[in-house]
Amino acid sequence: MIESRHDSVIVRRLSRGLIPLVQIFALYILFFGQYNPGGGFVGGVMLGTSLILGILVFGPTDPLTVVTKRIAETDGVGLMIFAAVGGLCLIGGGQFLNYAELEIPGLAAPSRRSLGIILTQIGVAVDIAVTAVSIVFSLSVMSGNGDSHG
Amino acid sequence: MTYSFELPLLILLILTAGGAIFVKDLLSSVLILGSYSFFLALVWAWLGAVDVAFVEAVVGAGLATVFFVITLFGIDPRDTLIRRTPPPIAAVVSLLLLGLLLLYAANDLAAFGDSASPASTHVSPFYLENSLADTRTPNVVTAILMDYRALDTLMETVVIFTAGLACWLLLRRDAK
Amino acid sequence: MVELVQGWLLRPNFIAFVTLFLLGLYITVTHHNLLKKLIGLYLVQTSVIFFLVTTSAKDGATVPILMPGKTAIQPDAYVNPLPHVLTLTAIVVQVATLGVSLALVAGIYRKYGSLDEDEVLKKLE
After folding, report:
1. Do the chains contact at C35 and B60, CB–CB below 8 Å?
2. Domain ranges in chain B?
3. pTM
């Protein structure tokens, strides 16, 4: 199914304009997850969906698909970010994932918790985006060889 | 009874679920399932669960449908027609009994919309009163998810990572 | 008997949950196609999650997003946020396990050439 780019010029032009819009909206939802509904999960899935649209429309030889293949191989970075934030709390003297013990000189405890929440949300979003793209690549390998009518 | 909008939505929900079952073709069934997810997101948004409605609309109606359709793409169209056999009597009778048992126990649950139900009285008033002062985050759901119960979220991230890894190992080993 | 039916009318979310749960379970048990079984499993999972969220509803309450600046916060004016947290996790885990089960079905199809449960069982012997 990812054999070649889409035939229609309209679809390609629209996707080229739509993908950056979806990514900017996903970043807005991610960073404003503390003030509006949203958060890490939805932002991550929307980022992954924009990349999936890119690989479906533009085919296997486009630079976007090549970069997305590289991104899909970095599965696990999000988990490392999340656990690293927890480990920094351990280094600062508190328990695992107790953000009040992060070692930042100018902030009081509620602001430290707010900062910890943002960092872990970034970790979760990266993890979900990369996993969604990786699952789509794995599922479409099956349809690439053999008879794929459809 | 103040729910005048929820009853039609619930009926539509059950009708779409029934439609996803009794359709003969697999692709149509999958797409009706996507519309079922959208109705579910509407019901939750009406009840005030906006975060959950957001996630369900993006993940259930978006990502799950994409996974299903990509899998269906690699399957020969002859295999996607569904064979119908008469329903086995034992399954129907035992499921009806299960339904009657579940409905018999309905009176022990709190009524819909009750503020004094056990789910709303022990820990959750503490979270509602103290989360703004502790974490400077107006969205209470995000504060609970990422601060008070951060360990659950860490384990969920591990599950998601493991699922991606399992898909890779299942399907990419011998298709080089 | 009458108070049983009155109890059911006060809890429409429970009736919807039981209907969807039994429908999904029926498909999973009786249909022969592997993908149809996965659709039935999806219905079972979403019906349970639906039931969890509807236990958090309160009459006349609003979205659990607090406005900074108010002095006293009444817990009764906001919808209970704790089931929302549990269901957020459950929905994302549900789609991840859906991906793994679709990968399993794709592997079975690649190896045995059929999605029908009886044919696969025949080829296994």
Report:
1. no
2. 1-84, 139-176
3. 0.89
